[in-house]
Amino acid sequence: MRMEDVIVDIPGPLLTAAGDGTTTKVGRREWTGLAVLALACLVYSMDLTVLHLAVPEISEVLRPTSSQLLWIIDVYGFMVAGLLLTMGTIGDRIGRRRLLMTGAAAFAAVSIIAAFAPSAPVLIGCRALLGVAGATLAPSTLSLIFTMFPDTRQRSLAVGVWVGSYSVGGSIGPLAGGLMLEHFWWGSVFLLAVPVMVLLLILAPRVLPEFRDPDAGRLDLLSALMCTSAVLLVVYGMKEIAQDGPVPMAIGALAAGLTIGSTFIRRQLTHPEPMLDLKLFRLSSFRMALTVNMVAIFAAFGYFLFVGQYFQLVLGMSPLRAGIATIPAGLGFMIGSQLGPRIGKVVRPAYMIGVGMVMAAGGLLLLTRITETGGVGLTIIASLLVSFGLAPVFGITTELIVGTAPPEQAGAASGLSETGAEFGGALGISMLGSLSIAIYRSQLGNTLPAGLRDADVHSARDTLGAAMEVANGLPGKLGTAVAESAKHAFLTGMHLTSAIAAVAALLLAVIAVLRLRHIPPG
Questions:
Q1: 3-state DSSP: the chain helix, strand, coil percent, rounded to 5?
Q2: CA–CA dist 261, 85 (Å, integer)
Q3: Which ranges in 149-207 belong to alpha helices (H)?
Q4: Which residues sit opposite 211 in a β-bridge?
Q5: Nearest residue to 132 (alpha-carbon basis) of 67, 44, 199
Q6: Which distant-in-sequence residues (6+ apart) come within 8 Å of 481 by Cβ?
Q7: How far apart are CA 445 and CA 471, in angstroms?
Q8: In a designed cystine with 234, which of 120, 257, 287, 335 is the match (CB 3.0 to 4.6 A)?
Q9: Max intra-chain CA distance, the chain
Q10: Concatenated DSSP letters for 393-416?
Q11: Pick from 432, 328, 377, 335: nearest CA to 74
Q12: What is the pLDDT of residues 172-187, one digit of tens each?
């Protein structure tokens, strides 16, 4: 099937191929459309990080348990990971622009509800619904980019802008969240998405093409349900095992998820119109790029969860100051994502990935050296190394993943790319977060001072925010001792999980160089 046969309803001057076989470069409308897509990605990414600085206030106002707090933070990523593949396939069938606009409208509506959530369970539910809406944005934006920019050089630049918009969103999230928290309540951070989504709804019909596969069959709802259920059950089981040990419910969830996942794979191999074309996994470059992308995001989101709490709860910085301290990391992502395509013209992808992962590992190892006093500068340097090292990796691996798919499967391939990315991010938050909580509880159980009430001991062992609240309510030296014990326990968990992420990055750097070095520059 030719590209001309599957693109419909495209406004403006977009042409997929000239008569001599070369691609035709696009005009102003497509670049304006790219800006609109970047807005969607910015908000989508911002919602992954905007809550990090709000964790202390959420802990104080809603009083979630440690498990509920983790779910508030990472259920968004879990739902996105579970639904991205399904949404990419739906976009190929109903139209990617239509799916994008539907998701944007839902995202704005649920954001307003989340801003006024009265309890932790309600906030968890809102975050889950935001994940459903967010899952419509990522595959739509990426697949539309591959549709709008047939010229290889322009597409590489567009993908760099796409990655950069995620970086900007991730960096704006803490800063914007800090500004809002400085003047308003914790729920105000959700309202940041509303005006951007409204703007997207206004501009999208004017500047974005519609794309659908005219030969797409009916959506396999059973496969979609199996895919989502498998991802959520596996992640839930792993998170609970890391936090509470191999309890029966966690083991059962993990076993059920793996069983459903294997059944889903067998169904895709035999179904006449599979939701996921597993033939893509026959390509070693595709498999390796997907793995690198997952592990890179695992490391990035895992460490970022701790940095916001370290700045505020350990060093006592205000939300605004903590947000300002994250600006260098955001700049590192933006600069790295824009330099990546240019360096990739002359340097093999394998070596760029290897250097980037080693740089990120160096930053993660620096985080193992921070202390309870005066670690702001070291943390900023570490964050800058991580962000600058990983930004080009995200762009390179995304192009390798989606570029292997035929045009009519670009939505499914981009959904698979984003599924791996979100799965890695959710695992980073969940697994490293759960491990750090387990270490925190273990350490605190041995170092809390004597004479505390059972209720205070229970609260202090739940989260660092709860421990600091307990310490503030105790007199003199007793409160100081509780605060110091909690900070030390938190840093112990942060040091160990940062070291684990660093080792994973180093191992993947070696594997990527060995497995991808045959791919030429450009």
A1: 80, 0, 20
A2: 13
A3: 152-183, 193-207
A4: 7
A5: 44
A6: 448, 449
A7: 15
A8: 257
A9: 83
A10: HHHHHHHHHHHTS-GGGHHHHHHH
A11: 432
A12: 676 777 777 778 888 8
- The two three-digit tokens of residue 423, written as one number: 């799965």
> Given the structure tokens 């070696």, which residue do they identify?
510
CA 260 to chain centre: 24
Tokens of 135: 């899952």
Determine the Cα–Cα distance for residues 201 and 44; give it in Å rounded to an integer. Answer: 15
Residue 430 backbone zone (phi > 0: left; psi -120 to 50: alpha; other: beta): alpha
* Residue 20 confidence class, pLDDT cut points 50, 70, 90: very low
What pLDDT does 13 receive? Answer: 37
The first and second tokens of residue 439, run together, are 């270490």
Backbone angles phi, psi at 276, to 5 degrees: -125, 120
Strand partners, 7: 211
pLDDT digits (tens, 9 = 90+) for 32-91: 888 888 877 777 777 766 676 677 778 778 878 766 777 787 787 777 767 776 776 777
Collapsing DSSP to helix, strand or coil, 376 comes out as helix
CA 202 to chain CA centroid, Å, is: 26
Enter the tokens of residue 288.
């390796």
Reduced to 3 states (helix: H, G, I; strand: E, B; else coil), residue 506 is helix
Burial class (CB in 10 A: 0-12, 13-18, 19+), 316: exposed
Write the pLDDT tens digit of every residue in 310-359.
887 788 887 778 778 877 887 887 788 778 777 877 888 888 888 999 99
Q: How far apart are CA 196 and CA 471, in angstroms?
A: 40
Query: Residues with Cβ < 8 Å from 507, sequence gap 6 or more?
Result: none
Token pair for 233:
């059950």
Q: Which CATH number fits domain 26-219+275-452+482-516: 3.30.530.80, 3.30.360.10, 1.20.1250.20, 1.20.1540.10?
A: 1.20.1250.20
Q: Which residues contact 493 (CB under 8 A, 6 or more apart)?
A: 435, 436, 437, 438, 439, 440, 443
> pTM (2 decimals)?
0.68
3-state secondary structure 230-258: HHHHHHHHHHHHHHHCCCHHHHHHHHHHH
